Amino acid sequence: MLYWDSFFQSGVLEQNGRTISFSVGTQGARDIVLLDNREILSLPVPFNADGNLYFPEEFVAALKKNLDKARQEDATRFRIAAIVVDPGHGGKDNGASGEHIINGRKVMAVEKEINLAVSLDLYEKLKAGFPDKRILITRTGDSYLELGERVAKAHALPLKANEAVIYISIHANASFNKSARGFEVWYLDPEHKREVIDKAKFSDQKEIIPILNDMLAEEYDRESVEMARSIARRFSESFGKELPSRGLKAEQWFVVRKARMPSVLVELGFVTNPEDAVLMLSERGLQKFSNSIYNGIMDFVNNFERSGGFIAFQ
Ligand SMILES: [Zn+2]
Fold first, then answer.
1. How far is CA 210 from CA 80, 198, 239, 257, 262, in A?
2. pTM (2 decimals)?
3. Where are the alpha helices (DSSP H) in the chain?
4. CA 21 to CA 107: how far, in whole Å?
5. Residue 272 above 90 pLDDT?
6. Residue 85 contacts residue 168 (beta carbons within 8 Å)
7. 11: CA distance to ligand 1 center in Å?
8. Cα(240) to centroid of ligand 1, in Å?
């Protein structure tokens, strides 16, 4: 793809998201050519003759070499290949619920419904925002899922060695104390060691499984904490005093524990608190919740992919 500016006699070539910016000169002239607006090459520049634009051989060869190199780098760069959104509960499992009188009307805040509404909205936003990733949702209606089923889909995804999946479970909180309110973002307790390696793959090297598991679990933990932080930051930014932060929490949540991937669990607010319930039941609140989670995921993904994945994250 060539974008051409005839007034400035300059152009941008684009291939698979890589760009080459150049200016046209006279035949035989060398000038600066920019790769991805970053790397500078000095090459004989394209020139006009008989009303045609000519690309010197050295220019074409250098670009081809650099595009091939970039393609190879892309193939080994760590990336998030898929994002799984998990609306908590469903079907016979309502989750928590709270009854409130709002504007003189009796209203029920039912966790499974709130989780689903926010998740479906988040799911659509992720699909639009990350067309290069697979976006999954564990349920799209009021259906009941066993806990193992929620992560099974994600585990079944075919992944390359440089690819990871992230998992976001969405819930709402409840308390006997009706004044308890605010959001929480949970990640797995780093003390808890999960079994993350598929034993079948290493059947003849059993002694290394626990070691590899420790290493992987630690990486997943670190990613999970980082993702939890990103989401919590966006919640605070977006809601301010409207929805207090109850902070990051570490626990051995079952859903999260079963997930062999960086994963977090978000508690949007309390169905038992009238202010939180109003927020979670309103269209405006729903949008704010899904936007905050979306932006938190985006921050995490950008950092993760820019840093080259698990290793460089801190
Ligand atoms: Zn729940």
1. 25, 11, 42, 16, 19
2. 0.69
3. 57-76, 111-129, 147-155, 209-239, 254-257, 274-281, 283-306
4. 59
5. yes
6. yes
7. 54
8. 23
Residue with tokens 């002694």: 207
Under the banding of pLDDT at 50, 70 and 90, the label for residue 237 is very high
76-97 tens-digit pLDDT: 677 899 999 999 999 999 999 9
- Measure the CA–CA gap between 114 and 142, rounded to whole angstroms: 11
Please report the domains of the chain, with CATH numbers, ordered by start residue.
2-75 (3.30.457), 78-306 (3.40.630.40)
| Positive or negative torsion for Cα 197, 199, 200, 204 | positive
Residue 296 CA to ligand 1 center (angstroms) comes to 20
Cα 243 to averaged position of ligand 1 atoms, centre (Å): 18
Distance 134 CA to ligand 1 centre (A): 25
Question: What value does the mean pLDDT of the chain take?
Answer: 83
Average of per-residue pLDDT across 86-115: 94
Distance, CA 98 to ligand 1 centroid (Å)?
Answer: 13
SS3 for 201-232, per residue? HHCCCHHHHHHHHHHHHHHHHHHHHHHHHHHH
196 versus 228: the higher-pLDDT residue is: 228
Q: How high is the pLDDT of residue 155?
A: 80
41: which 2 tokens?
A: 């090459």
Coil vs helix vs strand at 269 = strand
The dihedral through the CA atoms of 127, 246, 220, 257 has a sign that is negative
